[in-house]
Amino acid sequence: MLHVPNQSNVDDLNNLRREAKNKKKEYLKDKIDEFETNIKIKNVRLLCRGISDFKKGYQLRTNVVRDEKGDLVTDCHSILVM
To answer: pTM value?
Structure first.
């Protein structure tokens, strides 16, 4: 976006940053409200699970693919053939 640093590109970038910041604030408020409702209804299990997931953040999952012999397949072309 800033390959050509003119004023309109800088303004667009600042607007996108501002929108992202507002979305993050809304998400955090929603999570806090969710935790508060779990506290109010005394659902400790969901509260602890929510806090744990929130602290861990987003984590990628890897899927392990094995062939008929039970060997691990790592080549993407052979995975598509299976």
So the answer is: 0.58
